[in-house]
């Protein structure tokens, strides 16, 4: 499969990982009056501009990216406007979205809002996205999180930093690239020769467990963990692998194997920690709803990307010379792989208020209400 700049991430199943005040220290009264800090880890679905500071091709720093962002300029987000972290920030009452960790503006009191460590192109595995060269792999994102806590400790003390992290909301999204930009990147890839698909999925899950345990060890107690969505149904895969507009079967099989095993992993971590830690958020089902009945959600299509070229606007980069739809609200996909801002809004609304079909056993509004009373 040809590599494209857009092939950095895919629509997720989101798993909300939460420990309800599992004995951690409570913040001071002044901390209680401050909105939750918010930390973001992962790939291009949630990168808000870290890659702008890196020598990599995995960037969204040119028009028409950002065409519907308040500044009308590209920000490094792989979106026409806001991405999922932006919209969650608004829902939790944050004064602003967490800045990219590499941003020189992330200093002083702005550190207390949180930080975004995500980097387009990364995966669970260190060899995922090697073609993009300089990206912040997951182990390095977690090292930056450790460094961040030392920096915040210089502002509010070590105990204050610990409390801030314990009470924060965390989002981590990775996994899609381990299929698109690794296993299925080229025919007979190194990983596909090393593992049959079922064994590769098991390997990914075992490596993801290490990342999640490390994140917990670093103090994260409320974590949104994303898996993969319908990998074969995005415009890029329709253009390159699909037949007659049908989703690509091999990538759909990968998602069907991976996501249930991720949920089982989270349940096992629950048991290991001895408390109800993980809450599944079935964003993949939401996206399947878009694919099967886009008009129900106000979209004219879930097959054709707003920005791009070739079949389904699914080939190559989104650039100033690409086809560009006049109304982004009518498209489920902004580019060959990434949802439009409107699709992101629908996903976040379900995270906040969705039924147990999408948020099991409770939605984020319920969780925030519980936090406010404890």
Estimate the strand proportion: 5-15%
Q: Report Rg.
A: 19 Å
| Mean pLDDT value | 87
Main β-sheet, spatial strand arrangement = 3-2-4-5-1-6-9
Q: Report the CATH C-level class of the domain at 14-231 and 245-281.
A: Alpha Beta
CATH fold topology of the domain at 14-231 and 245-281: Rossmann fold
Shape: globular
Task: Summarize the main sheet.
Answer: 7 strands, mixed
Protein name: GDSL esterase/lipase ltl1
Keywords: Hydrolase, Lipid degradation, Lipid metabolism, Signal
Signal peptide: 1-25
Family: Belongs to the 'GDSL' lipolytic enzyme family.
Molecular structure report:
Keywords: Hydrolase, Lipid degradation, Lipid metabolism, Signal. It comes from Stylosanthes scabra. Residues 1-25 form the signal peptide. Belongs to the 'GDSL' lipolytic enzyme family. There is one protein chain. This protein has 374 residues and is α/β, with parallel strands linked by helices. It has a domain at 14-231 and 245-281: Rossmann fold. 37% of the residues lie in helices and 9% in strands. The chain contains 11 helices and 9 strands. It has helices at 29-32, 84-91, 138-166, 176-183, 190-194, 197-217, 235-240, 249-273, 283-292, 341-353, 364-372, and strands at residues 14-18, 38-42, 114-116, 169-173, 222-226, 278-281, 307-308, 323-324, 359-360. The strands form 2 sheets. The protein has a 7-stranded mixed β-sheet with strand order 3-2-4-5-1-6-9. Residues 1-31 have low confidence and may be disordered.
Topology:
Elements: E1 14-18, H1 29-32, E2 38-42, H2 84-91, E3 114-116, H3 138-166, E4 169-173, H4 176-183, H5 190-194, H6 197-217, E5 222-226, H7 235-240, H8 249-273, E6 278-281, H9 283-292, E7 307-308, E8 323-324, H10 341-353, E9 359-360, H11 364-372
Parallel strand pairs: 2-3, 2-4, 4-5
Antiparallel strand pairs: 1-5, 1-6, 6-9, 7-8
Helix pairs in contact: 2-10, 6-8
